[in-house]
Amino acid sequence: MIISVVSGKGGAGKTTIATSLANILQADYYDLDVDAPNGEHFLQPRDWTRRQAFVLQPKIDSATCIACGKCAKECRFKALYKIGETVYLNEHLCHSCNLCREVCPTGAISYKEVPIGEVRTGHSSRTGAKVVVGDLIIGSTRGTALIQDITTRLRSDGLTIIDGPPGNSCAAVAAIKPADLVVVVVEPTPFGIHDMLQTLTILRDMGKPLVAVANKALETEELEKVLAEQGIELAATIGLKSEYHKALLRGEVLSQADAGVFQGLQQAVAREVEKR
Amino acid sequence: MMKQIAVMSGKGGAGKTSVTAALAKLLPAVIAVDGDVNASNLPILLKPQQMLRESDFFSMDIAQIDTSQCTACGECEKICAFGAIEKEGDTYNVADDCEGCAACAWVCPQKCIKMVEHSCGKKYLSLTENGYLVHADLNPGADNSGKLIASIREDARKLAKEKNYRLILIDGPPGTSCQAISSLTGVDLVLVVLEESLSGLSDYRRLATLLSHFRLPHLVVLNKVGIDEQVAKNIEDAVAENGGEIAGRIPFDYSIPQALSRCETFLDLPEYRPTIEGVSGQMLGMLG
């Protein structure tokens, strides 16, 4: 079973909650916030094995290319352009879609592997369970492709926790897609609530069951009201406390620093796990 | 000369929007841009007074299959790199994953796939107390967030020219990937909001590497400081190593999230107003 931990707003506490759940449930932990992965600071994994992740991008054989410009004309992402008698590729714009290879009248285009990041696998010295980290090359625009590269290979024997990226764009969708259950982390402020509503739209469209948890909470009245309008009950609340912040600054997994704080969430998740 | 400043952090929740909103209210005439198009919170703090324009954002066309002509040969499914063509009964459908590359339309022997216009979000222009706000809402889960950011930044530049405004202030998205890059290209200065935490430091290092690729100078506001001396020291060292300059420090203080929950900014908290004024002064000084 796969549980994705997401939040529309950044800094709501996805990593705090995902690492804690991985600890409580003895689950594998996948860090799919690939352009800002931070779970390893808390889970302290050891014995890394590494693999490169790639996307396919066009390679133009200059001997066969007649510089007709057809590929550049047809590319909808404007990733190919012709200057003089040479066709160039802008790697940042390429979506690896295959079209240029199809349209090329001389068969000059093949696909080559271009690295987009590294996938590291280790074992947490804190929980003993597996830790997988997606680490996007800095400056790469292919974060979603790296997430998909990892999720398509993901086999969950027991329980797996995915720590997703913030936001409500394609990267979040890619991290939600393999999930059997989604934990939505909400900072109960006007900002967190605004961003959560978009996340809920995505989850509804994808038909994903969810558990909502408030984090860094000073009060939850407004959040509970908004959730009720959506037919959702707030499953658990974690307060805004400087002790928690201090524990995180020391690199502790919050559920190890204070087991009690996760009781509500643990029960809510357990109920959902049992249903499946 | 028009100047552009992007407020970035790497880590989400570091305080980008809180700092941007305070600066946007303080600066005399500014066009504010919310570059976090799928979690846009700047309007909540800037409280625009009047909506001037609202428009659909069209980016990529998407594929549409005329099922009456489709022979279910499966060529489209084979070529699609995004897994967006799904078999349904004895015909094919296009799923939300379509990125609009048109490869399916090209290979279809029946020529029964066409590319159709598709709105993937909305753009807004509104009037604030002392300037304008340009923001957008990407349709939840949609692609093309980077293009939407580029589009509203272009709108902001046109507006600046038209109204003779000299400063554009961009509230950036978290992370260091496509949306961040789209918010950074062509700016003159970056203001980094760095949260005193392990994740804040780790993400700052990634962001600083990105900024050096683009050869962009940066100032730093440290946020939520005063909890852990060792982390604080590591952060100050990292900022020095990466050529940043610390322009202000904001402590971990419950009164700040409380004020933000009331939709107030740092300017409404008398003890922090001078910090924001100091940051603003240094920014303008660096822009010359």
TrEMBL record, chain A:
<dbReference type="GO" id="GO:0051536">
    <property type="term" value="F:iron-sulfur cluster binding"/>
</dbReference>
<dbReference type="InterPro" id="IPR027417">
    <property type="entry name" value="P-loop_NTPase"/>
</dbReference>
<dbReference type="GO" id="GO:0046872">
    <property type="term" value="F:metal ion binding"/>
</dbReference>
<protein>
    <submittedName>
        <fullName>MinD superfamily P-loop ATPase, contains an inserted ferredoxin domain</fullName>
    </submittedName>
</protein>
<keyword id="KW-0411">Iron-sulfur</keyword>
<feature type="domain" description="4Fe-4S ferredoxin-type">
    <location>
        <begin position="85"/>
        <end position="114"/>
    </location>
</feature>
<feature type="domain" description="4Fe-4S ferredoxin-type">
    <location>
        <begin position="56"/>
        <end position="80"/>
    </location>
</feature>
<keyword id="KW-0479">Metal-binding</keyword>
<dbReference type="Pfam" id="PF14697">
    <property type="entry name" value="Fer4_21"/>
</dbReference>
<keyword id="KW-0408">Iron</keyword>
<dbReference type="InterPro" id="IPR017900">
    <property type="entry name" value="4Fe4S_Fe_S_CS"/>
</dbReference>
<dbReference type="InterPro" id="IPR017896">
    <property type="entry name" value="4Fe4S_Fe-S-bd"/>
</dbReference>
Automatic annotation (TrEMBL), chain B:
<dbReference type="InterPro" id="IPR017900">
    <property type="entry name" value="4Fe4S_Fe_S_CS"/>
</dbReference>
<dbReference type="InterPro" id="IPR027417">
    <property type="entry name" value="P-loop_NTPase"/>
</dbReference>
<dbReference type="Pfam" id="PF01656">
    <property type="entry name" value="CbiA"/>
</dbReference>
<dbReference type="GO" id="GO:0051536">
    <property type="term" value="F:iron-sulfur cluster binding"/>
</dbReference>
<dbReference type="InterPro" id="IPR002586">
    <property type="entry name" value="CobQ/CobB/MinD/ParA_Nub-bd_dom"/>
</dbReference>
<keyword id="KW-0408">Iron</keyword>
<dbReference type="Pfam" id="PF00037">
    <property type="entry name" value="Fer4"/>
</dbReference>
<dbReference type="GO" id="GO:0046872">
    <property type="term" value="F:metal ion binding"/>
</dbReference>
<feature type="domain" description="4Fe-4S ferredoxin-type">
    <location>
        <begin position="91"/>
        <end position="118"/>
    </location>
</feature>
<keyword id="KW-0479">Metal-binding</keyword>
<dbReference type="InterPro" id="IPR017896">
    <property type="entry name" value="4Fe4S_Fe-S-bd"/>
</dbReference>
<feature type="domain" description="4Fe-4S ferredoxin-type">
    <location>
        <begin position="61"/>
        <end position="90"/>
    </location>
</feature>
<protein>
    <submittedName>
        <fullName>MinD superfamily P-loop ATPase, contains an inserted ferredoxin domain</fullName>
    </submittedName>
</protein>
<keyword id="KW-0411">Iron-sulfur</keyword>
